[in-house]
Amino acid sequence: MRHNWWRWLLGVVIVLGIFLPSTVWMHQRISKYKTNYKTPLNPTIMVPGSSASQNRFDALIKQLRSETKSAHSVLKVKVAENGQLSYTGSIRQGDNQPFIVIAFENNHDGYENINKQAKWLSIAFKDLVKTYHFNHFSAMGHSNGGLILSVFLEKYFGETKHVAIDKLMTIATPYNMESDSTTQQTAILKELIAGRSNLPKKLTVYSVAGTENYSSDGTVPANSVNQGKYVFQNQVAHYTQVTVTGSNTTHSDLPQNKQIVLLIRQYLLKEKLPAKDRYKRQKANASSSITGETGLP
Amino acid sequence: MGNWKPLRRLWRLNQRMEQWRAMRAIKEALRIAYPFILVMTLVDVVGQSFLASSGFFFQIYHVGSWLPGIDLWQQFFQVISLVINGVVAVIVAFTTGHYLARTYRGDALAVGVMSALAFLTLNVNYDALYETNHVTGEGVPQFMENNLGPQGIFLAIVVGLTVGWFGSHLMSWLAKWQLRHPRFGQLSWTGRVAWPLGIILVITVGIGYGLSWLTDGGINGLVYSALSASVANPGHRGLVILGVTALSNVLWWLGLIGPVSLAGNSSVTSLQNLAYAVQHGSGWNAPNPITLHTLGDAYANYGGAGMTLSLIIAIWLVSKQASYRRVANQTFLPNLVNLNEPTLLGLPLLYNPILLIPFVVAPAINIGLAWCAITWKLVPPIVYPVPRTTPGPLIAFLGTGGDWRALLLSLICLTLSVVIYIPFIRLLNHEGGDDHAA
Predict the structure, then answer these.
(1) I want to staple A141 with a disulfide (CB 3.0 to 4.6 A). Which of A146, A268, B150, B234 is the partner?
(2) Which residues on A lie below 8 Å from B301 (Cβ)?
(3) What is the pLDDT of residue A280?
């Protein structure tokens, strides 16, 4: 009988020796899945510049739709001064790359207003996350829209847990307002530089400038766009500056500019462009599986 | 002996089948192949579950982080496993042919080698011959290596039986013909082997080459692709899943190992379930609660097809056959990590009419039970991927993210299967000893 007693003890030890570590392992795995998981829904949030409405990007969207041959659905959000949201359009069921345009009733220029608009943007953003349950997105801002997005990312984005921003593209965004100076920093630039450590570390930023001549797109000085490096460089994962010249490069034409549309398709929508349209050879992005590892059956 | 009438009838069927020459040849062949397969599987247990990075024990004990020279170990075990695992079916073809020829009092060794060669010719990669003429041909294997491993066992048995019968008869006919026509002179042993071998090889090469026009995977590939196609997509309906699992288990019993294997982790429905669980924190209300993966893999696959883990427990509990108890002891560890080939070949379970019934019924009942439990929302479906070598009763627990009800259901399933196996194991207690008693 003593012999049997030992056997039972050994059995219990073996069962526990398998059971307990596997439970620990399971919890590790589940939390890993949770952090690695990306929703299929991957919207592109577009923010227009000052004095522009939620219809600012209609021309761009029309162009994108016809060129990409996929009917990206469009949801437009207008934020009133009291924070009330009014929606037009909708995200079509099954469309995983919709566009969401967020515009503001008070769309005036100026340091104070941009900060207010960033706050309003955060209200709309939280509501969108709550409604559509996406946990990653890309963003595109034209002109001051880029400033609004940058301020939003620094000040309010951290409040929404479990949502990540993959890419941010700013088009002709005057990081130093109308200033042409390379040394003097305006209030908004100072603020952005002061808060830059709050920017998401994994973010990829593309800053696109247009120039009609060697210094400006007619509204925003190229130097002001260049100041973006002091905000993003050495802070986010990648910061790329692109300057577009040629026809249709005045400030307000830029979102419809053919080259910029290609940039949006290539970098924001992660399309595989045909060779003739490509800016440069894109690295083949190995689509990572949801489990994030191989070897499992 | 069971007094229940159907059981008695089953016993008689078993006795009658054991009289068949083919049956005895198969049993003998598997008995000879068993130690080889056992060694191979024990190597696989270490290789797949402790050393492979997808292995269960590798992951839970984080073997990679403390075992020095992990790559070396992996390669070492991989090589051993490859060598034996790769040619198991050839061994079976040889032993089947060999034993059958012996019962015909033929030249057993020669016929055994003949049937092994015949089996190989059916699994030559005929496309590779074509490739070498055109492109480099490098890296294209000469044989369809998959078919020489465990999944080729059925074909090996068929070929072994056919060649064993045909070869022995051919050789004895040749000898008789010689006696009747002495003017052709005495045929040497070489001649007596060479002529039948030539004839058999011509026939099998013809069959194999002809089949290569039809399918890429050889004759085995044909069977497997036909089965996988009918079996791979059982959809969501419980009855279809039940039917598919039962069919699959019958095929395992015949030696057609593995058209439906535990591979559901990466199917679309499983990924959808995983995505849901990650977003909502649990698998309740997952979009695909009833799939082959959530039912079969989680609750009807302990030890591999046919719930062989509970077969082993049943043997421990009630079997009086020394050989059964020995096989159970030897193959417990492989069964724990769902590698049950040695149990199937060692008992042997293959072609054993008595064990066929619980082998099919136990998983079916478990699937039915799990089906009810999931549709009545008593347990959530498994949603997180688990390694293939996870011990059976833990699959549901780990796959649901640690749901105790799932663990309870697993234990119920295990117990139930043991209970189902017990009367049949009791029946088999009469084997051997019964001949003397009667």
Answers:
(1) A146
(2) none
(3) 45
The angle that helices A187-194 and A111-132 make with each other, rounded to 10 degrees, is 50
Q: Are A118 and A79 in contact (CB under 8 A)?
A: no
Question: What's the rounded Cα separation, in Å, for the pair B201 and B250?
Answer: 31
Ranges under pLDDT 70 in chain A: 1-3, 273-297
Task: Examine residue B266 and state whether it is found in any structural domain, yes or no.
Answer: yes
Do A296 and B265 lie within an 8 Å CB cutoff?
Answer: yes
Q: Which residue of A has its CA nearest to B393?
A: A19
Return the H-helix or E-strand segment holding A140.
Answer: strand A136-142
The answer to whether residue B15 sits within a structural domain is no
Helix (H, G, I), strand (E, B) or coil at A263: helix
Q: Cis omega (within 30 of 0) on the bond before B150?
A: no
Taking an 8 Å Cβ-Cβ cutoff, which residues of chain A contact chain B? Answer: 18-19, 21-27, 29-30, 33-34, 37, 39-40, 133, 289-291, 295-297
Considering the domain architecture, whether residues B268 and B124 belong to the same structural domain is answered as no
The reply to whether B187 and B264 lie within a common domain is no
Q: What is the pLDDT of residues A244-289, one digit of tens each?
A: 988 888 888 888 888 889 999 888 887 776 666 655 433 333 333 3
Same domain, B254 and B397: yes
**Residue B156 to chain A, least CA–CA distance (Å):** 28
Identify the residue among B278, B384, B386 best suited for mutation to test binding to A, counting A beta carbons within 10 A and taking the highest.
B278
Residues B193, B243, single domain; the answer is no
Q: Which residue has the higher pLDDT, A236 or B432?
A: A236
Same domain for B240 and B359, yes or no, is: yes
Number of domains in chain B: 2
Total-model pTM: 0.74
On chain A, the residues whose CB falls within 8 A of the CB of B45 are none
Residue that the structure tokens 């012999």 belong to: A3
Q: Which long-range contacts (CB under 8 A, 24 or more apart) does B324-332 make?
A: B324/B425, B324/B428, B327/B34, B330/B38, B331/B38, B331/B41
Among A13-22, A60-69, B95-104, B137-146, the minimum mean pLDDT is found in B137-146
Residue B82 belongs to some domain of the structure: no
Chain B residues in contact with A21 by the CB 8 A cut-off are: 60-61
Of residues A37, A133, A291, nearest to B385 (C-beta): A291
Q: What is the pLDDT of residues B268-294, one digit of tens each?
A: 778 788 888 887 888 888 888 888 888
Residue A97 near residue A110 (C-beta atoms within 8 A): no
Report the pLDDT value the prediction gives residue B259, as an integer from 0 to 100: 55
Predicted confidence (pLDDT) per residue in B173-217, tens digit: 888 888 888 777 777 888 888 888 999 999 998 888 887 777 666
Dihedral angle, C-alpha B153, B157, B158, B162, nearest 10 °: 150
Beta carbons of B54 and A297 less than 8 Å apart = yes
The ranges assigned to domains in chain A are 1-32, 42-277
Give A42-277's CATH code, choosing from 3.40.190.10, 3.40.605.10, 2.20.25.90, 3.40.50.1820: 3.40.50.1820
A17 vs chain B: nearest CA distance in angstroms?
10
In DSSP notation, B160-189 reads HHHHHHHHHHHHHHHHHHHHH-GGG-PPPH
Q: State residue B292's pLDDT score.
A: 80
The beta-carbon neighbor of B275 closest among A25, A26, A37 is: A37
Integer distance in angstroms from the first to the last C-alpha of chain B?
12
Whether B264 and B202 share a structural domain: no
In this structure, are B179 and B278 located in the same domain? Answer: no
* B203 and B250 part of one domain: no
Which domain, by its residues, includes B418?
Answer: 232-437
> Burial of B116 by CB count in 10 Å (0-12 exposed, 13-18 middle, 19+ buried)?
buried
Position A149 scores a pLDDT of: 95
| Closest partner CB to B54 (pick from A21, A24, A295) | A295
Sheet containing A164-171, strands listed edge to edge, beginning at the edge strand earlier in sequence: A85-89, A74-79, A99-104, A44-47, A136-142, A164-171, A204-210, A238-244
